[in-house]
Amino acid sequence: MTQKFVLFTLLMSVWLGRAENSVAQTRTANTSKPLYTYTLSSNGTAASYDESLAVASLQGIINRTAPELYVLSRTNTRPQFWLDVLSKDGRWLQGRKQMPLSDLGAIVKLAGKRLKGVIIWDPAVPATVNVATTIAGVHDAVVLSPELADQYRAKWRLKVLVDLRGKFTGAETGSKKNDAYRWAIREYLAKGKCSSRLLCLFEDAFTTRAKGDISYVLTRDWAVKNRAFVFDLSPWGDEKPGDDLTQRLGLDLETYNLILAETLRQAAGEHMTELTGFFAFAKYSEQPNHPSAHKEVPTEWESVWLMSPFNCYQNTISSDCFNQSLHSQFPRKQLKQRSNPKPVALEKKAYISILMADYDSATPLYDFLPKHWQGANREKTPLAWGINPNQLETYPDIISYFYETASTADTFTADASAAGYMNPNRIRKEYLPLFVRHNQQFFHEADMTMAPMVLDRDQPTPEVKDAFQQFAPDGYATIVADVNGGRATYPAPQVWKGMPILELINDTCNTKDPEPLADVMANAIRGRRNVTPGFYFFRCVWVNPSTIAEAVAALHRKYPDLNIEVVAPKTLFALFKESQEKRPK
């Protein structure tokens, strides 16, 4: 490790040590306060959409300074699951008396004087649901549909702060949607009223309200709490979006760039910016009801390519992520890996590691990982779990739970691409020191020293390798793709200033069954000439550890000539480094 890395580690240890001293006091104090709960109707109607929007905006205000309100669902069991987990075994919500609230009026009463008024959005311009959310965060307001405003505003004695109905006609850009966002940029983002640390790419009401799709409605507590700018635009400039077919070609992309550029200006190089949420598949990529030249994965890559030069990293899927405004207030402390790999002597073998990938964003972490974690026989096979450490800002209590329940065979690493999903080659050189500081902070807190899934369109530049060496000195692996015109040149396996660099083999990403998975691994090893000793890091997405154990058994049984050994990720990188040091000069 470099002297700078060691010094940074010592400083962070002091800071986090002080934070740990306050943890017990915080937990004790919280047990005396009730935890209010509210259960959404979630019945798939426009009315349930409107209810969820009101609840989420109120929750963001209520939870801004203390974890008071927890939202449950009649149709989604995950928030109840996490409430149960975090309320026992000495975890931070244990001892909080749960007090259910019966209706919206009870939440308004709980908010009290913290709630300053009402923002009414315009269903005739679906984008205004996002603009209204932005304004609600700035002005501490509840977002109401016209119907709910008519029903409740007078009863709650709240004044209308902003009424967006009829405000956007397309007079400025020819697009009501883009007029709305450009007005919000000028009035809120450019005036420094919004956070420069968080942007929210949340699907608007274009199709979602009619069918009661609340997946990116209930998440708005996080936007309101953080006073984030909320939008929904296409990253493509060569075709018109499905929700605005009469707009001028490229208009959505122009407005998208305006948002990114203004956020960068507001951040002033002091910190990076998270963009949480995902593009709307049905509007911006090829779907059965939406013909497009662009498929889903290229649209994902284009989005990340677009935002990376603006010091912006993506937290991709965050739909159906309940209670982020509450979870985020868990008293964070230095995490410690439980991984304890046995020493392995370098022999003429095919060494394999498995990355249990794609838990880097909020939804997989919150909803998918528990399905493959609890009850799994994880200690049988050494595994790397890809959890991006920037998620400590959103779900620190959930990440802490995974760390404390890990086996000694489980290692946590970053996923795409480090502390946030970005294309490192696209980061401007003058901002690479900021990129390093950002990652050092999160990697240290998460006790991580490896970045095994760096995504880009070409091999890393020397400057990018220098950057990663400062926070991921124990190993770097990459997937390089020619999506949307990249060169897709992989770096040669190497040791860069002490940091091992390997390919992350993506052949296994779509294989879910043990026998085919073993076959794909064997073909990948043979396709790389099965040189021994050989080093193979495989990416497996959302599969159960038992599937991996069965696939490894099948590999041994069906392909004994490959002479494989499965090792922990740090061991794989260390063995590769040792093999390079022993090569003839």
Account of the 3D structure:
The protein has 585 residues and is α/β, with parallel strands linked by helices. The protein has three domains: 1-31; 33-327, no CATH class; 352-581, TIM Barrel (Alpha-Beta Barrel). The protein is 39% helix and 16% strand. Helix 9 links the parallel strand 7 (198-201) and strand 8. Helix 1 packs across helix 16 and helix 6 (128-139) runs parallel beside helix 8 (176-189). The chain is globular, with a radius of gyration of 24 Å. Mean pLDDT is 94; it is low at 1-11 and 13-29.
Mean pLDDT: 94
Main beta-sheet annotation: 9 strands, mixed
End-to-end distance, in Å? 24 Å
Give the class from helix and strand content and strand pairing: alpha/beta
So what's the overall shape?
globular
Secondary structure blueprint with pairings:
Layout: H1 3-21, H2 23-31, E1 35-40, H3 46-62, E2 69-73, H4 78-86, E3 98-100, H5 104-111, E4 117-120, H6 128-139, E5 141-144, H7 146-156, E6 160-163, H8 176-189, E7 198-201, H9 220-226, E8 229-231, H10 251-267, E9 273-277, H11 281-284, H12 296-307, E10 312-315, H13 324-327, E11 350-357, H14 362-373, E12 383-386, H15 396-404, E13 410-413, H16 432-445, E14 450-456, H17 462-469, E15 475-480, E16 494-496, E17 499-505, H18 514-527, E18 534-541, H19 545-558, E19 564-566, H20 569-581
Parallel strand pairs: 1-2, 1-3, 4-5, 4-6, 7-8, 7-9, 9-10, 11-12, 11-18, 11-19, 12-13, 14-15, 15-17, 17-18
Antiparallel strand pairs: 16-17
